[in-house]
């Protein structure tokens, strides 16, 4: 059921209220009107270190090397139902999510 669905919108643009942000807001508003619970994070508001491929996260499920903004985001990401990349911003385009890495 959609009412049990939790959707987390992740904005990767460095510009607040830019086109990417407006599109994300529109999507989340539509999901809310259908009964889903939504949340939104803007990555520009977090200090996140780049993945160095140490693979420590393969054992724990979270990054063991850095205690940065991702540590705050892990609970939000885990509470959401799946991850569906769509129109990803350049700053979100790296192989880390595909590899399961931070």
UniProtKB/TrEMBL annotation:
Pfam families to which the protein is assigned, alphabetical: FMN_red
SUPFAM superfamilies registered for this protein in UniProt: Flavoproteins
Signal peptide: none
Name the UniProt record assigns to this protein: Iron-sulfur flavoprotein
Keyword tags: Flavoprotein, FMN
Family: Belongs to the SsuE family. Isf subfamily.
Gene Ontology MF terms in the entry: oxidoreductase activity
Domain named NADPH-dependent FMN reductase-like: residues: 6-82
Cofactor(s) for this UniProt protein: [4Fe-4S] cluster; FMN
Keyword presence, Flavoprotein: yes
Entry keyword annotation includes Flavoprotein: yes
């Amino acid at each position: 059921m959609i009412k049990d669905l939790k959707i987390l919108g992740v904005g990767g643009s460095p510009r607040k209220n830019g086109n990417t942000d407006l599109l994300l807001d529109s999507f989340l508003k539509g999901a809310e009107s259908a009964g889903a619970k939504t949340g939104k994070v803007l990555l520009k508001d977090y200090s996140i270190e780049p993945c160095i491929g140490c693979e420590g996260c393969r054992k724990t499920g979270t990054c063991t090397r850095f205690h940065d903004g991702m540590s705050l985001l892990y609970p939000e990401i885990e509470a959401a139902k799946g991850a569906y990349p769509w129109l990803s911003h350049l700053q979100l385009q790296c192989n880390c999510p595909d590899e399961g890495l931070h």
